[in-house]
Specification:
Radius of gyration: 19 Å
Strand order of the largest sheet: 4-3-5-6-7
Helix content: 40-55%
Distance between the termini: 29 Å
Strand content: 15-25%
Largest sheet: 5 strands, mixed
Shape: globular
Structural class: alpha/beta
Number of helices: 8
Number of domains: 2
Length: 198
């Protein structure tokens, strides 16, 4: 689910949930409070406020929160995902950050960050079950099944990949997960969100 708001220039359309004005207000928070909590200051612009409000919905609707960023010395997380991490702490949600400075996962204990050397077998099985279940739920409507068949054909994997996906995902090992994390989660990505120029 990708929470967004009216007027935001989204680069993707699949899985978007446009928040109403009333829903955005549910996630309203004082920038002074956020600034004090995160030991930095923020500019109060309508677009920035809506981004914070949409992050509130992302965290509020998540069971576990995963962030890619940089853990700072004061235990806050640097970047646009920083407020999401702080809000997850306030909500006592399981929180994990892949720190791009040391290329390792860290888990928030409620008081400090601890290094997670590798995901446990139980965590990997839970993630695989969740993904396989989400895949099945995404295929309930005929149009969605048709979309995936076409998508995989266009992606070059062939339409048969759609039916192979759950079996192939179930066969993924912990070593493969660790190798993929090292390969894909070690480069910094900065996203700049701003209103469209007129």
């Amino acid at each position: 689910m990708n929470f967004t708001f009216e007027g935001h220039n989204d680069s993707r359309t699949r899985g978007i949930r446009v928040l109403t004005h009333t829903e955005l207000k549910q996630g309203d928070v004082s920038l002074t409070y956020v600034g004090r909590l995160m030991n930095r200051s923020f500019t109060d612009t309508p677009i920035f406020r809506k981004i914070l409000q949409s992050i509130w919905h992302q965290v509020n609707n998540g069971q576990e929160i995963y962030v890619i960023g940089h853990i700072l010395g004061d235990s806050t997380v640097k970047g646009g995902t920083g407020w999401g991490a702080e809000f997850a702490k306030l909500c006592n949600k399981p929180l994990f950050v892949f720190d791009q400075d040391d290329s390792r996962w860290h888990r928030w204990t409620g008081e400090t960050w601890v290094v997670e050397s590798q995901p446990t077998d139980k965590e990997i099985e839970r993630a695989k079950s969740f993904s396989i279940g989400t895949h099945a739920l995404a295929h309930q409507r005929t149009r969605d099944r048709a979309f995936y068949l076409g998508w995989y054909e266009l992606a070059g994997t062939g339409h048969g990949f759609d039916t192979e996906f759950p079996r192939r995902l179930a066969a993924v090992t912990r070593d493969e997960v660790v190798q993929a994390a090292k390969k894909y989660l070690n480069s910094c990505v900065v996203s700049v969100v701003q209103p469209e120029k007129r």
